[in-house]
Amino acid sequence: MSLGFIMLVHTAFDRAEQVARYWASNGCPVVIHVDGKVRPARFRAFRDQFRDDPMIRFSRRTRVEWGKWSLVRATQFAAERLLADFPDVRHVFLASGSCLPLRPVSELRDYLDAHPETDFIESVTTEQVTWTVDGLEAERFTLRFPFSWRKQRKLFDAYVRFQRRFGLRRRIPEGVSPHLGSQWWCLTRRTLSSILSAPDRASMDAYFAKVWIPDESYFQSLARRYSTQIESRSLTLSKFDVQGKPHVFYDDHQPLLERSDCFVARKIWPRADRLYEVFLDDTRLANRGAEPNPGKIDRVFSKANERRGQGRPGLYSQARFPSPGLENGLTCARYNIFSGFDFLFDGFEPWLARRIGGRIHGHLYAPERAEFAGGETLMNGCLSDSAALRDYRPTQFLTNLLWSTRGERQSFFIGPHDAQDVVPFVTSDPNATIAAVTGAWAVPLLTSNLGFDAIKAEAARLQRVELAFLKELKSPGLAARVHVWPLADFVAQPTEKLQNVLSEITGPSPRRLTDLPPMRDLTGFRDFLLRLRDGGVKPQVMGDLALFPTKTDGGAKHGSV
Amino acid sequence: MARAPDLWQAYKLRWKRRRLLARSFAKRGQLSARQDRTDRIGPGDILAFATVRNEMSRLPWFLRHHRALGVAHFLVVDNDSDDGTVDYLVEQPDVSVWTTPHGYKASRFGVDWLTVLLARHGHGHWCLTLDADELFVYAHHDRRPLRALTDWLDLTGRESMGALMLDMYPRGPLGQARVDPQDDPIATLSHFDAGNYVMIRQPVLQNLWVQGGPRARAFFADDPRRAPTLSKVPLIRWNRRYAYVSSTHSALPRHLNHVYDQSGGEAPTGVLLHTKFLPNILTKSTEEKERRQHFENSTLYEGYYDALISDPVLWCEASTRYAGWQQLEGLGLLSRGGWE
Fold first, then answer.
1. pLDDT at A331
2. Are A279 and A347 contained in the same domain?
3. Do B318 and A251 count as a contact with CB atoms less than 8 A apart?
4. What value does the mean pLDDT take over residues A373-383?
5. Which of A51, A171, A377, B338 is most buried, judging by how many CB atoms fall within 10 Å of its CB?
6. Number of folded domains in chain A?
7. Which of A243, A326, A381 has the CB atom closest to B196's CB atom?
C-alpha cells in the first residue's frame, strides 16, 4: 500500500468511478474530492456506490473554480484525508476524474519503489517558464488579481498595467522560492505532510490564495522548501493548446498513448470507450520497465498548436483569413516576376525555363486572359484563366496559384499592358523577386505598323502605367527583392545583370552565363525615342538615350535629351 | 473599446435579428406536423435541421452519413414533395417531419420555417442546419463522432463552426452519372476544385464570403460577383434568440460568424460535400428555372440554369479526386484548428 491517489472530480462520474475502482482493486487507496458545485443528491448517489469499498473515501468538499485557490484547497482536503486514513502510503498521486492510467499500477508502484525518496513534480523557476498563455510568470507572485481573466479580460489587463505602472507589488514571503509547473504531481508523504503541517501554513495559504493560478505554483514552490529530491517532471501526460486548454485524448490516440510509456494521461474524452477498455485491462501486454517518454506525443501536439496558432503561411481559406499585417507570410513560396525582358529578347521564356526551371508563365495579368505556362486554360486547383475571375480578386488569384503549385518554382511576366492591381501586394511580399527593365515596352513600338499618333498615345499610356509601377517599387512598405534597370543601362551590360538575378533565384552557380537569347534589333531606337520626345511624350523610364544606337552608326554616341 | 459606429451597427443588427425571429414566428402556421417525434430528443443530443423538396435520390445516404456521425434526431420541413420523400421520412424512427405547401422563396429559402423549429427544439443543443445535398465532414470524422467535436468546441469556448461548401461533380457529363440513392454519392461525384476559392470579410455581419469552385469558373466566369456563396456556418450551439440571416451563410448575433481565424492561425473548419450535381440536376434545373424560387433575382440566373440543363462537363484535367478529410486538410480546404 505504498501508493495512494487523490482524485478531483466534477463531471463524468461513471469514468471517475471506473478508474477509482481500478486503482483500489490494485491495492491503492483513493480519496475523492467531488466539486462542491455538484448537487447533493448527485454526490450522495456517487459516494454511496463505493460504500462497500474501504479503499475509496471522500474528502470534505469545496466549490472549485479552475485556476483559483479553491482548487488547491480541495487538493489539501483530500491529501489530509489520505495521509490520515492510510498511514502506509508513501507516495501520493494527484489525478483528476478525466485521468486514465496508461500502464498497470504495479509498474507505477515498482517505479516509485525504485525512487522512494523522489518527488515527481514539475517545478520550474519563473525565469524559465515558457508555456504561460497570459505572459505573466514572475508577476503571478507579485501582483494582485481580483478580476477574472476569462470573463473580465479588460479589467484584468488594465489592473495589471496599473500595478506595473505604479510599482505596486506584493512581498513574497520568507522561504518561498517561486516555481511553476503542471498541477498534476506525485509527492512523497514526507514532502506533502511537511507542506500541510508547516507551522507557517496559515500565512502561506493566505499568500498563495491571491497568487494568480495557485494550483500551478503552491505545491510547486513549497515542494522546493521541503523536498530532498525533486524530479522536475510530471508523471501525468498532459498537453495544452494555444489557449491553455488541455488537449483531449480519443480512441484513435491509443497507439500514440501506448508508445508514450507514461503512467497516467489526461484528459480523456469520457466517451472514449476503447481507451478505457484497453488501458484498464491489466492482462494486456505492457512495456515493462520502460522510462516514460512523452517526446513523441509532444511533437504531434506542438504541430497541432502551431497550426492553430500560426497557421500555414500563404493559405487563405474558410479557416484562415488573416487581417492585414497578421498574415505571417503573404504567400507560401518564393516566386519571380519579370518585366520588360520579353520585349527585349526573342524567346526569353523558353530560355528562362532552361535556366531556372519551374513553371514560367506568360503575362498572368494580361487584359484578355491569364497566360498560364503551356497555354493551359485551367491550372492546378482548377484556377481559371478567365480575366474576369482573376480581376475579381486579383491578389487571391496569385495566392491561389502559389498555394496550388507548392514545391514548384513559379515565375511570370508583368508589363504596363497588364492589369496592375496585384502590384502593391507583390512589392510588399518578401517572397517576390522582381526584375524589371523599364522602358522595354517601347521596343515593339519601334517596329509597330500603327500611325505615329497612335504610337505616341500608346507610349504615353504605357509610360504612365510603368511610372506608377516604379513608384510602387519605391514605396516605404517594399519587401520584395527588386532589380530595376532603365533599358539603356541594361542593354549596356545585359549578361552581368541577368546573371545577378538568376543566381539570386537559383542560388549561386559556378557556371557563367554565356548564351543570352537574341536581343531585338535596336537600330534606330534612339531616333525613335527622340521623335517621341519631340512629339510631346518625354521618355522618362529608358535611361540615358545617348547609350542607344542611332539609325546610322549602330554604336553608342553621346548626346543628351 | 468598441467604437460608436460599431455600437450603432450592433444595435441595428439586434433589431434585424428580432425582425427575423418575428417574421419566422409569424409563419409558424405554415408548418403542419406530419410526424412529430421530438419527444424522443434527449438532453445533449445533436440535432440536424433541413428543408427538403423531392430529395428521394439523396435522403437515404444523407441520413445514413449523418447518423453515422452521431446526429440523434433529424427535424425536416418538406416543401411540397411529390416523389415519396414525406412517406420515406415518416418511416424513419429518428426523423420528425413537418410539411408546408407555401413558397420557398417567401420563406427566405426555407430559413423562416427552420428558425421556428430551431427555436422550439434546438435551444441548448448543438444543431447542424443542412440541405439534403450537403454531407458534413470535419477533421477525424471517420474516427470521432460529432459529439467529440462539439464537446471540444464547448471546452474551447466556441459556439459555432464554419464549413466550406465543396461542389462535387462526376468525371463526365452531369446527366450521365449513375447513382443509387442507397450508395455513397461521392463515389460518383468524385471530383472537386481544389484551389480556386476567393473570399472577403463582410463588414456588417462580419462573416467570410467565399466564392469560387466549378460553378464560378464554368457558369459565372463573366460575372464572378454572382457566383454562389460557398461559406456556411452550419454547426451552432443554438439559442432560441439566434437567427440565420441568409441560408446558413451567416447568422445573428454576429459572433456566431467568427468561425475563421483573423490573427494568422487556423480555426476548426469543416467541409460540406455538395451533392448538387447528381444526374437529376438537369430535370431539377428545368423545374427550378420555372419555379423561380431559388434566387432573389431569378431572371439573372436563367443563363446559369440553361448551362446546367445543357448537360455540361465540370470535370477537367486539373480536377482533384476526393480521398478523405486528410486530403482536404492538406489542400487547406478543411482545418482541424488545433483539434489533434
1. 97
2. no
3. no
4. 96
5. B338
6. 2
7. A381
Using an 8 Å CB-CB cutoff, list chain B residues near A241.
Answer: 156, 338
Contact A136, A163 (CB under 8 A): no
Residues B219, A71: Cα–Cα separation, whole Å:
60
Question: Which A residues 402-441 touch B at CB under 8 Å?
Answer: 403-404
Q: Output A449-458 pairs: Cβ under 8 A, ≥24 positions apart.
A: A452/A531, A452/A535, A455/A532, A456/A532, A456/A535, A456/A536, A456/A537
Q: How far apart are CA A335 and CA B261, in angstroms?
A: 26
Percentage, residues of chain B above pLDDT 90:
88
What integer is the mean pLDDT of B103-124? 95
A260 and A375 co-located in one domain: no
Average pLDDT over residues A397-417: 97
* A442: helix, strand or coil: helix
Do the chains contact at A382 and B194, CB–CB below 8 Å?
yes
Mean pLDDT of B206-230: 96
Nearest to B65 by CA among B179, B186, B165: B186
Residue A476 located in a structural domain: yes
List phi, psi (to 5°) of B186: -70, -20
Region B217-232: mean pLDDT is: 95
Does the distance separating the beta carbons of B200 and A319 come in below 8 Å? no
Residues in chain A within 8 Å Cβ distance of B334? 319
Q: What is the pLDDT of residue B38?
A: 96
A119 lies in a domain?
yes
- Both A340 and A471 in one domain: the answer is yes
Q: What is the rounded average pLDDT of the residues B94-114? A: 94
CATH number at residue A241: 3.90.550
Q: Which residue of B has its CA nearest to A330?
A: B264
How do residues A190-204 score in pLDDT, each as one tens digit?
Answer: 999 999 999 999 999
Comparing alpha-carbon positions, the chain A residue that sits nearest to B198 is A396
pLDDT in tens, B46-70: 999 999 999 999 999 999 999 999 9
Asked if the C-beta of A240 comes within 8 angstroms of chain B's C-beta atoms, the answer is no
Residues A215 and A360 in one domain: no
Q: Which of B198, B200, B226, B326 to mutate to test the interface with A (most CBs of A within 10 A)?
A: B198
- Of residues A273, A262, A265, the one with CA closest to residue B144: A273
Give the whole-angstrom CA distance, residue A511 versus residue B44.
Answer: 69
For the record, the C-alpha cell of B219 comes out as: 457558369
Closest partner residue to A388 (CB to CB) among B224, B269, B336 is B224
Q: How far is A176 from chain B (nearest CA, A)?
A: 34
The CA distance from A275 to A266, in Å, is: 12
Question: Over 90: is that where the pLDDT of B139 sits?
Answer: yes
Cis peptide before B253 (omega within 30 of 0): yes
Across the interface, which of A301, A319, A396 has its CB nearest the CB of B261? A319
A286 falls in which pLDDT band (50, 70, 90)? low
CA distance B289 to chain A (A): 25
| Contacting residues of A for B195, CB less than 8 Å apart | 380-383, 400, 403-404
Residues A271 and A354 in one domain: no
Q: Which domain holds residue A451?
A: 335-547
pTM exceeds 0.90: yes
Tell me what pLDDT residue A128 has: 78
Number of inter-chain CB pairs under 8 A, A vs B: 179
How much is the ipTM here?
Answer: 0.95
Q: Please name the residues in contact with A483: beta carbons below 8 A apart, sequence gap of 6 or more.
A: A433, A434, A435, A436, A497, A500, A501, A504
Chain B: nearest CA to A412, how far in angstroms? 18
Answer yes or no: do B338 and A320 touch at CB < 8 A.
no
Residues A436 and A535 in one domain: yes
Q: Which residue of A has its CA nearest to B163?
A: A318
Asked whether residue A202 falls in the same domain as residue A261, the answer is yes
Mean pLDDT of B258-264: 96
Position A554 confidence tier, pLDDT thresholds 50, 70, 90: very low
